[in-house]
Amino acid sequence: MTAETPRDFIEVIHNAIPAEACAAILAQMRASAQLQPGEVGSGVFPELKHSKDLRISGRAEWQQVEMLLQQAVFKGVLSYLRRYPQALISPLMLQVQDTDGSARRLSADDFPGMEDAQLSELARTCLRPGAINLQWYAAGEGGYPYWHCELYPRDPAGETLHRHLLWTLYLNDDFQAGETEFMFQERKIAPRTGSLLIAPTAFTHTHRGNRPEGGDKFIATSWILFQSAQRLYGGA
């Protein structure tokens, strides 16, 4: 019997959006006058992250792009939840109404046969999308070499602690290197145009963005967050 390959909870979904859509986003980004120096959680530190960034959420001229990306990510998250249902049931101890009208706890065994509509509703009830940031890393100098995770307590409202999954969508691949590298999993994700990366946000998935060589690297990135306590539990 062959042992099952250990799961690293990193998923890569190829062709999440078409290559021509990636090219259009890239062209619009290159032409934008709204690019800003890339920030980490505490400000602009080029020695930690060297990029030009553009937050597109809430900008009218980027509305169609944001919708396209969020739809692709939501589809990817549903696939992720089917593979790792514990991403929902472990932190939330979800209950559903059984056929006899009584409440029962959801288990991982419920997910493989769950209708798409039911899983979509469950995901929307428990999770919410973060604001999308486009990032441009120049060849030979851009990158995010600092080993980091996506959870930190700096935000007084605790918003950054609600981040559950990270995602990156690669908009081009006409360069060398530039991988997303995960420390403990000892895994490098090579960018492929239109591919979507999904992984947990905690320190277990500490990662960095390696410097691209021979061409600039463009990505879209954000998080999937838990709904607020008030939305989930009421009265919080």
From TrEMBL:
SMART domains: P4Hc. Its cofactor is L-ascorbate. The keyword Plastid does not apply. The keyword Oxidoreductase applies. Keywords: Dioxygenase, Oxidoreductase. Residues 8-225 form the Prolyl 4-hydroxylase alpha subunit domain. Coiled coil: none annotated. This is 2OG-Fe(II) oxygenase. It comes from Stenotrophomonas oahuensis.
